[in-house]
Specification:
Blueprint (H helix, E strand, L loop, with lengths): L7 E2 L5 E3 L2 E2 H8 L3 E5 H16 L4 E6 L6 H9 L3 E4 L2 H9 L7 E3 L6 H10 L3 E4 L2 H13 L4 E8 L21 E2 L4 H11 L3 E7 L9 H22 L5 E3 L17 H19 L5 E4 L3 H4 L3 E13 L3 E6 L8 H5 L5 E3 L9 E6 L8 E8 L7 E4 L20 E6 L2 E6 L4 H5 L10
Parallel strand pairs: 4-20, 5-6, 5-13, 6-7, 7-8, 8-9, 9-10, 9-11, 11-12, 12-13, 15-17
Antiparallel strand pairs: 1-2, 2-3, 4-14, 14-15, 14-19, 16-19, 17-18, 20-21
Helix pairs in contact: 2-9, 5-6, 8-9
This protein binds ligand LLP.
Ligand LLP binds next to helix 10.
């Protein structure tokens, strides 16, 4: 078992989080249930903030795509982090939380006209411009609104990060950003410098997600600094900020070996400092955008176990009351998770089972071949490290209402997302006249 934050096994042999017995949470809120450990979440925010601060001028942005929620945005603001948003919806959530707009960075490879107008009019700190079309559109919007917008350019440095194919974003053949090799990035810088309503303050890159190889970041940072030097040589322009994205890997499963925030901070900042000296550049402010590493380990999902099916000599399936609707990652990426029977957390794990979801789809499996305590219907399954990209990618497939999300801290629990009802599911359905 891999307990993080405030998780522990209590005197009743039950899993506890935030000082609350998970079986009590289930009695109060039912299942499936997403639970976030406020202390763990805050500790992760601080660990990144402090580690990067210790290495020089920096700003840590929480990548809200990992889990975007009004209460959580408030916590991020309290912890002094900035916010990476990637849509009008995430931006709206930040506004709803009263998040300081100057610390919001707006990403996305196809921001709509409305999203860009919204971003400029609410005063987001930076728009991270992804492509030529956006550059011109944003400039025009700013001229119309008589505004001046600080921007970063998203560069695709062509760094290979060793992670799942679908979540690699820095390689050359990518839908994101201006490609560095071949000169597209330099063209973008020239164009940006000519946009009178835009102020080019920095560069951004993001090489992927769930990465453990620190060298990939180091290499990306070096390439970006080298490009900054080329820009300075050709145009005289110097940058204030270098944002090297997120992607810091976390522990899901044996074999995952996460690095400490201080490891990332030291290596990245040493790389940019060395290159700044080598190329006689100002050291830019170092910006990072961890999502998963901040919220992932702070979240667990609680399910109730229902039916089971044993195929002698093959395997035993047990089914829970959620599945790919609340956690699509195993079906989508083959992601692996660890779990425990929360009400039998101190018992020996003697049963080899596979955990199925309840969706009408054979691929709806949460965990293959895992050892758990002997299982009876009604037992509570706790799946670890579900804070990132679970709720964020959840769906209503099979018309399953989304679970509630609960924040726990110091023995208390608070709803931060209401459980969806059947009424919520039909709320936007509309019956045209001829069908009434
Ligand atoms: N910054 C940018 C520009 C990004 O594209 C991402 C993630 C992040 C920061 C945050 O990355 P993190 O620190 O959370 O790894 N749905 C996939 C992950 C997709 C990540 C997309 N971009 C998954 O469930 O694994």
């Amino acid at each position: 078992m891999h307990l993080t934050g405030t998780m522990r096994i209590n005197g009743f042999g039950n899993l506890e989080i935030g000082g609350v017995d998970t079986t009590k949470l289930v009695e109060q809120y039912q299942t499936p249930l997403w639970v976030i450990d406020e202390t763990g979440f805050r500790e992760n925010c601080r660990a990144f903030r402090d580690a990067f601060q210790a290495c020089g001028d920096s700003l840590v942005l929480y990548a809200s795509k990992a889990l975007c929620n009004t209460a959580l945005c408030k916590i991020v603001a309290e912890e002094g982090l900035g916010l990476d948003v990637v849509s009008g919806g995430e931006l709206f959530t930040a506004m709803n939380a009263g998040f300081p707009m100057e610390k919001v960075y707006f990403h996305g490879n196809n921001k709509s006209l409305r999203e860009l107008q919204m971003a400029v009019s609410v005063g987001v700190g930076r728009v991270v411009v992804d492509n030529f079309h956006e550059l011109q559109t944003l400039n025009r919007i700013c001229l119309e609104l008589e505004a001046r917008q600080d921007i970063l350019l998203r560069i695709t440095p062509g760094v290979e990060a060793h992670t799942h194919e679908f979540i690699k974003t820095g390689q050359i053949d990518s839908k994101f950003g201006f490609t560095l090799p071949g000169g597209q990035a330099m063209d973008a810088v020239r164009d940006a410098l000519e946009c009178e309503a835009l102020r080019l303050v920095g560069l951004h890159c993001h090489i992927g997600s769930q990465i453990f190889e620190i060298e990939s970041f180091e290499h990306a940072a070096e390439l970006m600094m080298q490009f900054m030097a080329e820009v300075k040589a050709l145009t005289g322009h110097e940058f204030d900020e270098l944002d090297i994205g997120g992607g810091f890997g976390i522990y899901y499963f044996p074999g995952d070996e996460p690095r400490q925030p201080s490891d990332w901070a030291k290596v990245a900042s040493a790389a940019i400092e060395a290159k700044a000296v080598q190329y006689s550049l100002r050291r830019p402010r170092l910006i990072v955008e961890p999502g998963r590493a901040i919220i992932g380990p702070a979240g667990i999902t609680l399910y109730t176990i229902g039916s089971s099916k044993e195929i002698p000599g093959i395997r035993k399936y047990i089914a829970v009351d959620g599945g790919m609707t609340d956690n699509p990652r195993p079906a989508l990426y083959g992601s692996k998770y660890l779990a425990v029977i929360a009400n039998k957390a101190s018992q020996k794990t003697t049963e080899l089972v596979s955990v199925a979801g309840k969706c009408c789809e054979s691929g709806d499996m949460l965990i293959w071949d895992t050892k758990l305590a002997p299982i009876e219907p009604g037992d509570i399954l706790a799946v670890f490290a579900t804070g990132a990209y679970n709720y964020a990618m959840s769906s209503n497939y099979n018309r399953l209402p989304r679970p509630a999300m609960i924040l726990v801290k110091d023995g208390k629990s608070y709803t931060i997302l209401k459980r969806e009802t059947y009424q919520d599911l039909v709320r936007n359905d509309f019956v045209p006249e001829h069908l009434k």
